């Protein structure tokens, strides 16, 4: 059974590769060059087209040679700059962010412009003949090659500005924030007051069922829930998955249980790969941001401002979720249990967001204070009691680690003050948040006067 979603995932991964857009542009340039040559051989150049290049064979050769040589030379420069940017990104922000640079369409189109200009000019150059009997100059192509040369100059200017923005830490944080928010919006549902939620059966229900062992290893990149449900319904069985997108599947490990038996072709609905991907893997973008913050808090970098920026992005994502409903991962058909899959919940998401930053930043007062402030603001956006309890738990962990790692009495007092603000917001809701915001404004004003 063919998995359309798997094909779509593979296609999306291929089109995001660094070579894809330059390769397509080069092929199109060669086709366009051949088309221009054929048109001129058949129809010539009307006298009314005054803008078309009108030089002879020698001038055409010199012009095309200059464009081809300069375009491929600058392409090498562009590639060198890209490698330098990737090295900087890998060293300061982590190697997992390299994909964000290589899949950037601006970088791909810039390199594609130079390579396609080289291919177009070189292909056209072979058509220029200087025979006395029948000389031929592809005027259309030479004119278009001139236009491509001008475009290369514009793309070079654009690329220098673009690559500078791309390695800016704030820009990277915003891009990862957008990926994270998009993934969360797709994974969650609009709040439905009438939705009661389905509950999974106890573990005893699955005892004695037929187990599926992983035939290979890799990250689970895609789980086709619709296909899994269809397979279970067709076989009239209940199916339990032990893995979720983003998990690493070990060879021969148990990944599914079927009661009373397994349906056929379960692996057709599961796509394994060598790396994690954005999409169903909700924690992937979160971990990318958390890794940037952790590296910023390392002794060799010591950049708490970047960590604070990341904490703000996490608060942004949680407040955007507000009270959107998380899927329960339990599927019934005709009142019969057919499928249970593990899902990421609010608790696990916040753990991925804050645990690593708290552990690495526990001796940084500014980071811990900002984390408590963001938790307080997030608490004001949530009404679900369970989620507010998660915020309370994280605030307690931050307070405990901060008091253990910070020795200055003034900083410790500020930690206690921010922690009380979180508790007041959790207890009293928006009213407490207004009071907290007012106190924060007073503190800022007092700091400005002190400066």
UniProtKB/TrEMBL annotation:
<keyword id="KW-1133">Transmembrane helix</keyword>
<keyword id="KW-0812">Transmembrane</keyword>
<protein>
    <recommendedName>
        <fullName>DUF2254 domain-containing protein</fullName>
    </recommendedName>
</protein>
<feature type="transmembrane region" description="Helical">
    <location>
        <begin position="140"/>
        <end position="161"/>
    </location>
</feature>
<feature type="transmembrane region" description="Helical">
    <location>
        <begin position="109"/>
        <end position="128"/>
    </location>
</feature>
<dbReference type="Pfam" id="PF10011">
    <property type="entry name" value="DUF2254"/>
</dbReference>
<dbReference type="InterPro" id="IPR018723">
    <property type="entry name" value="DUF2254_membrane"/>
</dbReference>
<feature type="transmembrane region" description="Helical">
    <location>
        <begin position="63"/>
        <end position="88"/>
    </location>
</feature>
<keyword id="KW-0472">Membrane</keyword>
